[in-house]
Structure formats: structure tokens, C-alpha cells
Amino acid sequence: MDHLDKLEAQSVYIFREAYREFKNLVMLWSIGKDSTVLLWLARKAFFGHVPMPMLHIDTHYKIPEMIEYRDRLAREWRLNIVYGENREALEKKDTYPDGACDRIACCRRLKTEALKHTLSGEWPRYRFDHALGRYVRDANRERYTGVIVGVRADEEGSRSKERYFSPRDRENDWDVGDQPPELWNQFKTDFAPGTHVRIHPLLDWTELNIWEYIDRENISLVSLYFDQGRHVRYRSLGCYPCTKPVASGARTVRDIIAELREGKFANIAERSGREQDKEDGGGLETLRREGYM
Amino acid sequence: MNTATAASAATLTPRGPADVDREKINIVIVGHVDHGKSTVIGRLLADTGSLPEGKLEDVKALCARNAKPFEYAFLLDALKDERNQGITIDSARCFFKTALRDYIVIDAPGHIEFLKNMVTGAARAEAALLVICASEGIRENSKRHGYLVSMLGIRQVVVLVNKMDLVGYDRATYDTLVADYTAFLHTLGVEPLSFIPVSAMEGDNLAAPSGRMPWYQGPTVLEQLDRFEAQEGKRSLPLRFPVQDIYKFTEEGDERRILAGTIETGAIGTGDEVVFFPSGKTSRVRSIEAFNVPSKAAAEAGEAIGVTLETQIYIKPGEIMTKPGERPPRTHSRFKAHVFWMGRSPLIKGKTYKLKLSTARSPVRVADILQVLDATDLSMTHRKQQLDRHDVGEIILETPKPIAFDPAERIEGTGRFVLVDHYEIAGGGIVQQEVEDGTTLLKEHVRGREIAWDRGMIAQVDRRARNRHASKFIVFTGEEQSDVAEFARKLEETLFRDHHQTYYLGLNNMLSGMGSGIQEKISDPSDSIRLLGELARILTDSGLIFITALPGIDDDDLETLSLLNFPAEIVVVAVGSNGFSRYPLDFVIPSGTRFEDGISSVYNLLREKEIVIEYTI
């Protein structure tokens, strides 16, 4: 088994463990490369099936290609896609850059708050109805107790402290200082009512591993990751007011792998194009403690 | 598996094309606080040229400006500060490389409060460095960490006797310490380790051999590290395929019934005969399943796969698939284990916890505490009847019914477990060996229950005379869920029409009814079985013919029901094929039998057994 086989086997094990132990399981899907690999690994774990809903938190500021890609994949693979949003903040335009708020406050409203209330079922969820070909209000309002998230330890400081199974309390808070032990392949799968567990199948993967795997498995991605002729591409995807592309002529997956192996970005953080990180003192810990992905 | 947190692999170590396929090995460094772990790591980073450019010079200049002597430990602090930027420290990871391979060093906190982090880090390591200060000698955590590292299954451990400069590089001091520590490990049954005298501060025997200890002829720390082997060899052990789950995605038009899991040890191929433990059921592998790969005829240790079987046997998650002809796992309900405890409340003799061993989950009771390594006086004591937080000890655990396991020294993956207390993983342990049953928990329980039973005035024979039938507990079982329940309900109806006192109850009524209010319910089906058994005791005592349908239960469930139903007796009727290997069946209704015919045969059986009389009024 090579290093990708080992990473894949561990992720599959984590997926199966989550599916076995959590009744109300959901997978967060951000449309980016990591969560698309996450989706692929789910199909590996369940022999081609994706037996849990995929939740997208729609800030309505996503780069348009992302939403097109989301709905196209939903149709092709007949995925059970659900989205949630912070309708109030969007209607009041309490967002960056329109409203009187900074990037962090905008992230908190459109992502953290929306995620929290969509997970709990307090705010509406919209499910893609394959018969109608459009999103409809989801009748299921039960709290999700297991939330699969595609974070990687190498992305930034606070993510390196995560466990594979990481408990969050009723307020979605993360107690970084007092995390459960993980021994061998035994994770925290028992949880008190009202709390939920974040599950991280990609924790051990690096940015390079993700691209190597996309190449090996021939996974299709949203085109924003590749140079379309203007010598720029996105290295990390987010909302258009706060996401900047990097200078790069990489047009294919292989080009990107070569770029990473050559150390082109060795001293530049993967999320350096994500402006909100900078406002949070370089780490996402403030946001992440409150439940940000 | 590789630890997560190559957090800074990208930024701290220069990465070039040559790194891509280099071997990586996780090592953990442990020891008592202030025995020099950070200095050892700082020195290893510096001497292997693994520091970011200019870092060593920066830290030296900073020390000079503040008029304090340079220490290698400062390097580590500087790196941590950079990476963590004031974020709470969990356990740090560093990276260094030799000509042979890359090392990921997990710096386990020496402070006792971080034991959870220490074991989480160490559980992912393939080798360990244990640091003991030559001048201070063996301290509390030298012992605890030595024990834990061995328990966590790290076979490759080397002890660094550090700060040899403080004892004048004295051989006698070193020899005494080696002898003492070896003796301590012997009391725990741990293999003697190799020792290296070093001074991390002065660089003796770290990267380069020391001229100041000519009496030591062994390898330097780096040489020793390069001699460690990345763990392999699992393929040559007997097959252990713990069944993690069973999938049938019928709604998606997929009729495959797939047993999913990760092969712990050994190898499997299509057509292989297999036997499952603890059930003892056998079958043959029809196919090996995986998504988006060419069809597979074989798979081996480490692979997360699925298998389909030639025959449809009822297997539950948690069973271990093995091959006949290879050494089988042990199947027992009692075993002796080493455990360490991290729970807020102590581990108490007689208390029940949730056991997670490989993919099996079961309630487990602490039947006995044999000895405890006391944290305060560093001795093994036989007096303590509980394990406090951070204690380690040897205990006997008992499950309500047999589970399959291996002694950890034979096969680690199926010999390790955790104990869950109030939603938290509170303890970890390794199985030493099974213990003969003696009186099982259940028998003990039934004896106590019968002694304490508060009886009314009506004798069983009077009820029988009034009802014109005996009381009985009738269990319908078999593979086809709907048929089994239908036969059971039809029998109730027939008996009722004939004026018998009878009552049907399904297992779901246990889960959503009687069992629903129980706090901290352990989500194990055997709990419902126990409730049902207790209920059967009451209902049969009241004179009823009590009927239930339990499709897919196994021998042990039936034995549990039979024991709990005491003193009344149990009748077991199987519908269709059955997977019971031990429990004697009273009657089998062949599959495809019409309901009327099946019920009439069961009725005849009840007459033969004189439960009902020939003609009723």
C-alpha cells in the first residue's frame, strides 16, 4: 500500500465508523477540492453510494461557478443535497462589503450562525428534489448529531489540533484545551443529548495528497482551480469579496502537483487568498471555537 | 497511521521533489518534566540540519542580547510560538530527517494533566524515546510513561539516560539507573529496553558518538532511530477482519449484502472459507468489493474493503472474520487486562462500563482489580479497589456474553480496547489473556434475584389448574424477520381463541417502552434481551404463555433468555433456516410452510410437552 492507499483506508474507516454510530449524520460540502475528495471517499466507503445528506451553507456570495458545479453534481450522482443560509442577514444586507461590518463579522453571520442553526434544524433547510429538479423546503428538522467535515490538519494552526472525532457542546463551542483521547482506532462516538460530534476523515491529508488523489482517481473539479488563460487560479475557494486567486499557469491537476512538489507555495499559506484569516490574527481559532468549519 | 499534524511540515522543513516518496516514521518522546525532552528534540533538529534557515542563529543572538546562556530547548519554544501564535498547546510535532528517512516527533507533554494528549500522540507512534535524567533518576512519570508506552503497543523503545554531563559521565551512575529501571519494567512484565547514555546539552551520543564515555560502545540516538523499523509484518499473521458494518443499499437498487471492514492482519481471497467469532458461523467469500478499482481477487492487512459471502448467514457488526486452519481468536466472557485510567471519576470494581474492542461494543463489568500502580508511592499495590485518574493497573473484565479477542502480544488490533464512562473514553487497555468463567455474572444475578423474590400467596400449581394450561416462554426465531413475527402473533391468536392466557410482545417494545427511561442506556441489543428475559420471568410466573419473536438472535441471546426466565422453561421455535450452532431448538418450521400448518405443528408440540391439554372447553 502506498501513502495514498493508507490515507484512503483510514478515511474510509472513519466514514464507516461515523455511519455506524450516528443516526442523524450529515456531510458538510463546500464544493471545494477537499470536500469533493471527501465525497469521493464516501463513495469508496459505501461502495458507490452516499448514504447521508450533504449540507452546503450558502452565503450567496459564492463564486457562481461553484453553485453551478454543486447542482450539476447533485443531478449526475443523484446526491441528497441540502442547503441552509442566514436569510435575515442577507435580507438586511448585514454583510461584507455592503453592510457596516468587517469580514470576520460577515463570516460569523453567513457561515457560523447559518451553520449552527441549520445543523440544529431551527432555520429552514432546502433539499434538492430530483423529481422536480429544484430545491424545496426540507421536512426533516431533526438536529444533526454527527457532522462530517473535510478539514485538514495542515491547513492552518487551529486545525492541527483537531481530533478525528471532535465533540462540540450545545452552543457549538469547541474546548480546545480538553479534547477526548483517541486511542488506536477508537474515537469518541458517545455523546450527551444536545451535543454533536464533528468528524474529520481528511485530517491526515496534506494539500499535495489531495491533488495526488484527485489525479489518481480522476475526480472532476470545479474549473476555478485551474488557470483559464489569465495566468491565475484559485488555490482555496470561498466567497468572491474575500477570495483572491494566486498567480499560476497550472491548467491541469498534474500541473498543480508539479507546482506543489517544486515548492512554489512552500512559504505561502494555502488559505493566504482568504482575507478573513488575516483579520483573525492569522489563525482561525476565534471563528473555529464558535463553530466555523 | 500517520499523525495528522504535519501542521508545519510545509513551512518548517525544506520540501523538495526528493521528499515525495521518502519513508516517514512517527516517534514519540516521553519522560518526566525537566528531564530534558525539549533539549533532546532541539538538538536532534539542529544536528540533522532540519531547522528553518537562520533559526539557530536567531535564537542564539536572542539569548546573547538577553544575557542568558543558549539552550537547545529554546529552539523548540521558538518554533512552537511561531506556529501556535498564542493558541493553546496540545502536543507539538516537529520534523527532522536523516539520510535514511523523515521523522515526525510527537513531543508528549511531561505534565500529568496532559496525559490524554500524551496517549493520543503516543498511540500513533511506531517508536518511542524515553528520557530519564541521570542526576535525578527514575521519577513518577519515568515509570508511568514506561508502562504506557509499552501498553500502547510501541515495541521499539529506547531509554535515553540524559544529562550525563551532570554526573561527570560516570559509568557506575548509568549502570545503576539501567539496572533499577530494568527491574521496574520486569515487575510490569515489560521487555527490557535498550539504553543510551547521552547529554543532549553537550551533544554526546545524539548525532555523533561521545569521546567522553569510551565505556559505551552502543549506537548513537540517530543510529538507533535509523535501526527502528516502520511497522510491517501484519500480513503474515492469521486473518483478522473485524466486521465494522453490514450494508445493503437496496433502495439504490444495489442487492449486494456487503460486510465492510478493515483487514487488521492477514490476507483474504475470493473462494476462501471463513469462520466468524464469537458466533462460530461459517461461509465462503464470494467477492471482494471496493469502489472505482479493477475487480479484486485478494486483499491484505491495512485495506478497507468489503466482502460478500456465498451463503446468507446472519452476522453482526463486531464479529471477527477469520480463516479455518489459522489460529483462531479467543472467545470468552472474562479476560485479564492492563488498563490506564483517564476518567474524571475513578474506575470502580463492580461497575459496568461500555467496552469498545476492535469493532465490537459490549457492556463490561469490572470483575476484579488485581493490582494498581500507585501514582503517589510508585509501587504496585494489591490493596486498592479502584483506579484513580492517571493510575494504571491490572484488572479482570467480564462481558455479559462471550466476545472474540486476541492477547495483545499476539495481535494488537484485536487485543486493545477502550472503556467508555458517561460518554467519554475514560480508559484504555490491552488484553493479556482469558480467565476461566467460574460463576458468571448472569448466574450470580439470577441466584440473587430468586433469593430476593417477593412472592404472593398463589402457588404455580393453582394457577395452572385455574388456567388449564402451564405457563411457558415461547421464542420464535429465524432469518426472515416478517415470517418469524407473523408466526408468533398467529400462535398468540390461536391460543387466545382457545381460552388460554397468552401474551405476545416484540423486542421493539423493550427499546421504546420499558427500556426508554433508563438513564445512560448502553446502546447494545443485549440490554433489550436482558429486559425481555426479566419480563419473561414475571409473566411466566403469573401463569401466562408468553410469546415473542426475535429474528436473528444468536446462541448467547438464547442462553441469556433461558437463564433469566428461570425457574420457568423456554421453548424455542425456528422459522426457516437458522444459524444456531449450540442452542438446542425445540422445533423447526421449514421455510415456505403455510401459517395454518406451522401453527398446528407448534400446537401439537405444546400438547406433547403438556403445556396445553388435549381438548379445551
What's the arrangement of secondary structure elements?
The complex is a heterodimer of chains A (293) and B (617).
Chain A: H1 3-21, E1 25-28, H2 33-45, E2 54-57, H3 64-76, E3 81-84, H4 87-91, H5 103-120, E4 126-129, E5 134-137, E6 146-148, E7 165-168, E8 196-199, H6 207-217, E9 232-233, E10 246-247, H7 253-261, H8 275-279, H9 285-289
Parallel strand pairs in A: 1-2, 1-6, 2-3, 6-8
Antiparallel strand pairs in A: 3-4, 4-5, 7-8, 9-10
Chain B: H1 9-12, E1 24-31, H2 37-47, H3 55-65, H4 72-84, E2 92-97, E3 102-107, H5 115-122, E4 127-133, H6 140-151, E5 156-162, H7 171-187, E6 194-197, H8 221-227, E7 241-242, E8 245-247, E9 258-262, E10 267-269, E11 273-277, E12 282-289, E13 298-300, E14 304-309, E15 320-322, E16 330-341, E17 347-348, E18 352-357, E19 360-373, E20 380-381, E21 386-387, E22 392-405, E23 416-421, E24 424-434, H9 441-452, H10 460-467, E25 472-478, H11 481-497, E26 502-504, H12 508-512, H13 525-541, E27 545-549, H14 555-564, E28 570-575, E29 587-589, H15 595-608
Parallel strand pairs in B: 1-3, 1-4, 4-5, 5-6, 25-27, 25-28, 26-27, 28-29
Antiparallel strand pairs in B: 2-3, 7-15, 8-9, 9-14, 10-13, 11-12, 11-15, 12-14, 16-22, 16-24, 17-21, 18-19, 18-23, 19-20, 19-22, 23-24
Helix pairs in contact in B: 2-4, 11-15, 13-14
Structure description:
Chain A has 293 residues and is of the alpha/beta class. Helix content of chain A is 33%, strand content 12%. An eight-stranded mixed beta sheet of chain A has the order 5-4-3-2-1-6-8-7. In chain A, strand 2, helix 3 and strand 3 (81-84) form a beta-alpha-beta unit. The model of chain A has no long low-confidence stretch (mean pLDDT 85). By secondary structure, chain B is of the alpha/beta class. In chain B, strands 7-15-11-12-14-9-8 form a seven-stranded antiparallel beta sheet, with no helix packed on it. A six-stranded mixed beta sheet of chain B has the order 2-3-1-4-5-6, sandwiched between helices. The longest helix of chain B is centred in the N-terminal third of the chain and has 17 residues, at 171-187. At the A-B interface, helix 1 and helix 2 of A face helix 1, helix 5, strand 9, strand 23 and strand 24 of B.
